[in-house]
Specification:
With 251 residues, this protein is mostly helical. Helices cover 75% and strands 0% of the residues. It is built from 11 helices and no strands. Helix 6 runs antiparallel to helix 7. The chain crosses the membrane at residues 21-42, 62-80, 101-126, 138-161, 168-187, 228-246. It is found in: Cell membrane. It comes from Arthrobacter cryoconiti. It is a multi-pass membrane protein.
């Protein structure tokens, strides 16, 4: 891997995003706005003395789900545009290696993912006073890792789309099932056997499990470490598969 070429690719993608304010707004602002909507949904909730707010549980999970969803969408569409426009084909005629190109894209979007996670987490803590047992740093780490997972899956799925509409169609195939089965609506151990087995191989499930660990425990647990390692493994696997499926242009 050539670090200079990888960094050049990263800077080029960041400059493209800088000149696209709508994409920047989608990445940085939309998750925070959606989090505000979740807060207002439960604003008038009637609670018994000592009962935790529903927003503290749901809002915490959304700090993983929203970045994952947004980064998947932005990354898959941006990568598809690069291929359809011929930019990817021109780049691959240079000495740059596929790994340099792919890691450069992943690094650029991961930087944006980190900024997105910091903004959303800051809003959750300082504006909506979300209450959990663990440290906010672990929440940021899981949120960033989940967003990077969305980046990796977006890079992988973009190889199988030929139009932006097709890229968007991967949302109900790749993203929505993970949201349904991650434990947001029903605890995973309360699902029927088939759905629980499916949820066990979906990466977003481990992000939600990790966030629940942070919510319930003041100190890091072995379960949290396991969840983080599984998520990191999924990221590396998706990037590896993306490198194998990377094509110069759409057919």
């Amino acid at each position: 891997m050539n670090l200079k070429m990888m960094w050049a690719t990263c800077l080029r993608v960041l400059m493209q995003l800088k000149n696209d304010p709508r994409s920047v707004a989608l990445i940085l602002v939309v998750p925070a706005i959606l989090l505000a909507v979740i807060y207002w949904l439960y604003q008038n909730e009637v609670l018994a003395p000592g009962q935790p707010r529903t927003f503290d549980r749901v809002g915490l999970m959304m700090l993983g789900i929203f970045p994952f969803t947004v980064m998947f969408l932005v990354t898959s569409i941006t990568m598809l545009r690069e291929r359809v426009s011929g930019t990817l084909e021109r780049l691959l005629t240079t000495p740059i290696h596929k790994a340099d190109l792919l890691v450069g894209y992943a690094l650029a979007f991961s930087i944006m993912a980190a900024l997105q996670s910091l903004v959303a987490t800051a809003v959750a803590y300082w504006v909506f006073n979300i209450s959990i047992s663990g440290n906010a740093g672990w929440v940021v780490l899981i949120s960033v890792l989940t967003a990077v997972l969305g980046v990796a899956l977006g890079l992988l799925c973009s190889a199988f789309a030929t139009t932006e509409f097709q890229a968007v169609q991967f949302m109900p195939v790749v993203v929505i099932p993970q949201i349904l089965l991650c434990g947001l609506f029903v605890a995973r151990n309360q699902m029927n056997g088939i759905l629980e087995a499916v949820s066990n191989v979906l990466p977003l499930s481990y992000a939600v499990d990790g966030l629940n660990e942070v919510a319930q425990h003041a100190d890091p647990t072995r379960a949290l470490t396991f969840d983080l390692l599984v998520m990191a493994g999924f990221v590396l696997l998706c990037l590896l598969l993306a490198s194998l499926t990377l094509r110069r242009r759409s057919a």
